[in-house]
Write a structure and sequence with these properties.
alpha/beta, Rossmann fold, five-stranded parallel β-sheet, two-stranded antiparallel ribbon, disordered C terminus
Length: 241
């Protein structure tokens, strides 16, 4: 039997690939990379990170931390703003709109204590509207998904928390369509704003994926990620990295 991560190399620098130091079988049905338990699912907005996390949760009961819930409130002076077609809105695509320190602290508590209180954010209101308790059984992987998830890959690695990091993506026009359908259905912002923002994100997507790769996330489709995270891999299968 060949374990998936014995054949995977995760990017940390475009000139250097790091191989995992060792691979251990985790108690929660996955394989641990150097003892870490946090599986980072980064990727462009609308790439399918949440759907992928939901499928992995259903398959293995791994808890999910939605990192997008760590956006700053609209009244926070640190929240960056942008003008879009004459409309002034929060720049949800700027990493400064997100509280990385709070996200890392929540993941650390979850891994070390098995419990962590995390916010519930409403994009339509630009504010946290509550909180929820996330629990992780001992040895379980923890799924951390969000558009800025790659920003904390190195911090998680340095803290011994990282299992693996992925940049989930498709073709940018596929992502554009999925994102627009989702945002309209959820009434996140006025339709004209969503369309203009969607076109801007579509244009910038190659650069976004490249940045996430530089930050240490391995680019892959959802299917490739699911295949890599299966507890048992067919002998000889190689991953995308």
């Amino acid at each position: 039997m060949t374990l998936p991560f014995s054949r995977f190399r995760l990017w940390t620098d475009p000139k250097e690939r790091l191989s995992p130091a060792r691979t251990d079988e985790g108690d929660g049905g996955g394989e641990r990379l150097s003892g870490g338990r946090v599986v980072v699912l980064a990727g462009p907005s609308g790439a399918g990170k949440s759907r992928l996390a939901a499928r992995l949760h259903a398959a293995y009961a791994w808890p999910v931390v939605r990192l997008d819930d760590f956006y700053r409130d609209g009244a926070d002076p640190a929240l960056p703003m942008v003008s879009l077609g004459g409309t002034r809105i929060a720049d949800w695509d700027d990493p400064r709109s997100w509280d990385a320190d709070a996200a890392v602290d929540a993941l650390r508590r979850l891994v070390t204590s098995g419990r962590s209180e995390v916010p519930t954010y409403d994009l339509a209101r630009s504010a946290a509207v509550g909180s929820r308790l996330v629990e992780a059984p001992q040895g379980s992987m923890v799924l951390a998904e969000g558009i800025f998830a790659a920003e904390v890959v190195q911090r998680l690695r340095d803290g011994g928390l990282l299992h693996s990091a992925w940049c989930v993506h498709h073709g940018r026009w596929v992502t554009f369509g999925r994102r627009l359908v989702r945002d309209l259905a959820e009434r996140r912002k006025p339709p004209a704003v969503l369309l203009r923002r969607g076109l801007a994100l579509c244009r910038d997507e190659p650069a976004v994926v490249a940045r996430m790769e530089r930050l240490g996330a391995c680019p892959a489709t959802p299917t490739e990620v699911e295949r890599a995270l299966r507890p048992v891999s067919r002998a000889g299968r190689r991953g995308p990295c």
